[in-house]
Design brief:
The complex is a heterodimer. By secondary structure, chain A is an alpha/beta fold. Helix content of chain A is 42%, strand content 22%. In chain A, helix 1 crosses helix 12. Chain B folds into two domains: 99 residues, 2-Layer Sandwich (Alpha-Beta Plaits), CATH 3.30.70; 76 residues, Alpha-Beta Plaits (2-Layer Sandwich), CATH 3.30.70. The chains are: A alpha/beta, B alpha+beta.
């Protein structure tokens, strides 16, 4: 199986590290000979139809910041041209997410479908904004579209709901889908510190981004709940439809008040028949949704299996790449006899 | 030994039948003070309705209230009479069999809770349910304060309460963190 990797930042590098590490395992367990035939970043691309050397690619990127410096095989080619011209079975789209326009990832995905390539992505921007448009392209060109890594990082949820829980009607999904806010609230509760202090500390530790707006405003959670609503519950909603409240007004006193009543406060994304919202909620102390630190959790309410709860790591390069790799394997297993 | 087992089995069967055909469960929420249980049971007994069992659901106890499950004989058309009588006495019935009638919700409020007329806030919530506990924390008169409250509400009025909370939230710039 030949794959084009689009985007060579934190996640892209994680994917390369994981594939490099698992190469033999993939061959012996699944018979999958996985080759990365192109890697693209802002500078251009490295292309080798027989498969790039992954250690060299990582080294070039680490040392020069540009994949186009890959010896002999580096080129100044645009990403769209690579997608159009390089022969491959699938692309892995891992460019930085844009929650306002979904670009340039949206264009990359559409071009991939048009050029007969399956799409595997961790990119939530285009999914949250143009889910139906993207899935209709996948259907039109009869290609597979997988995006497990876009919600909850390594925590299995989309494929769990669509495959393992197949046959169930899923009536409600709610959960903590943002690790940064969970870290902040957990720390505020434990150490009785105010929001700004904990946020600063989280930024110093690299847990929160320099611009934490998308996390603390609830926007990141909103994008993820929209993806779940559309992909699992067949809704046709967009970020603008989400009733949104962040965690910036939560105080240590509010957390103490919640504790006195037997609760904690978590930023919860929620979708059900009449609900699509993100906001701080009281969660009983002994509830399975009360997970600490930067963990993610989701509860699916289903007609047959009733409640199913999953917990996992919502971020991190290797963790997210785990979900991407499982999507790659799944595409391979579905198409190997074609 | 064998006979004993048989006897138990028969009793078990009888109980199942008995429960399946004749039982009504009422989930009550009582104040955790002496005499509350007897106050709730006396009117049921006075109506001639048989009480099969009384179970304390202590593991669900919250904030000084104790949920109690009372199992009574099928009172037929007198069930409504029993319910009305208990509710007249301000006894909270949360569930009749599997039908939830009333539910407890907890809310933590953040904002200038007192300065935005806390009495008015409570009155407006009382139009839909009953605010039963209120606890306030005001660490600094110039900073935002926090409060927690419990509201007992009929389940079919929850949506209306939510709309009212949204309205108050907008008018008074209060953040309501809900348990549902």
């Amino acid at each position: 199986m030949k794959v084009i990797l689009v985007g060579f930042g934190v996640i892209g590098k994680g994917v390369v590290k994981v594939i490099d590490k698992k190469k033999n395992h993939l061959k012996s367990k699944y018979g999958l000979d996985l080759k990365i035939v192109a890697i693209c970043d802002r500078s251009g691309a490295a292309i080798d139809e027989n498969g790039l050397d992954l250690k060299t690619a990582l080294k070039v990127k680490e040392e020069t910041g540009k994949i186009s410096n890959y010896p002999e095989k580096g080129k100044n080619m645009s990403i769209v041209d690579v997608i159009k011209t390089v022969d491959a079975d699938a692309i892995v789209e891992a460019t930085p997410t844009n929650i306002e326009t979904g670009e340039p990832a949206k264009t990359h995905m559409i071009e991939a479908f048009k050029n007969g390539k399956h799409v595997i992505t961790a990119n939530k921007g285009p999914l949250a904004l143009y889910f139906n448009e993207l899935t209709s392209y996948a259907e039109k060109y009869n290609k597979i579209f997988r995006y497990e890594a876009s919600v909850g990082g390594a925590m299995p949820i989309i494929n769990l709901a669509k495959e393992t829980l197949a046959g169930n009607e899923i009536t409600e999904i709610k959960g903590i889908l943002n690790g940064t806010t969970n870290y902040i609230l957990t720390k505020m509760e434990k150490e009785k510190l105010d929001f700004d202090t904990v946020l600063k500390e989280a930024q110093e530790l690299g847990i929160a981004e320099t611009n934490p707006h998308q996390d603390i405003s609830g926007l990141d959670t909103a994008a993820k709940i929209v993806i779940l609503a559309n992909s699992i519950m067949n809704k046709n909603v967009s970020i603008k439809d989400v009733k949104l409240e962040g965690i910036t007004r939560i105080t240590p006193e509010a957390l103490t008040m919640a504790n006195k009543s037997g609760y904690t406060i978590k930023l919860i994304g929620e979708v059900s028949e009449n609900k699509l919202e993100v906001g701080p909620k009281l969660i009983p102390i002994d509830d399975p949704m009360n997970v600490k630190g930067s963990l993610n959790v989701a509860m699916l309410n289903t007609d047959l299996a009733k409640e199913v709860v999953v917990v996992g790591r919502g971020a991190g390069d290797i963790e997210t790449s785990s979900a991407i790799l499982s999507d790659i394997i799944s595409v391979y297993l579905r198409t190997k006899n074609e | 030994m064998k006979n004993n087992k048989k006897q138990k089995y028969n009793n078990f069967n009888k109980t199942l039948y008995y429960y399946g055909e004749n039982m009504i469960t009422l989930d009550l929420e009582l104040k955790d003070i002496p005499g509350e249980l007897i106050r709730a049971l006396t009117p049921i007994s006075n109506m001639g309705v048989n009480i099969f069992s009384v179970i304390h659901l202590r593991e669900k106890k919250t904030d000084g209230r104790v949920p109690v499950r009372v199992v009574i004989s099928d009172a037929g058309n007198r069930l409504n009479e029993v319910i009305n009588k208990l509710e007249e006495m301000d006894i909270i019935i949360t569930k009749v069999n599997e039908t939830t009638r009333k539910t407890d919700i907890d809310i933590v409020v953040v904002g200038h809770v007192v300065d935005t007329d806390v009495r008015d806030t409570i009155d407006r919530l009382n139009k839909y349910g009953l605010v039963v506990d209120l606890d306030l924390s005001m660490p600094d008169p110039f900073k935002e304060s926090s409060a927690r409250m419990k509201v007992i509400i009929e389940t079919d009025k929850l949506d209306d309460l939510c709309k009212e909370l949204d309205k108050i939230s907008e008018e008074k710039n209060l953040l309501f963190i809900k348990s549902f």
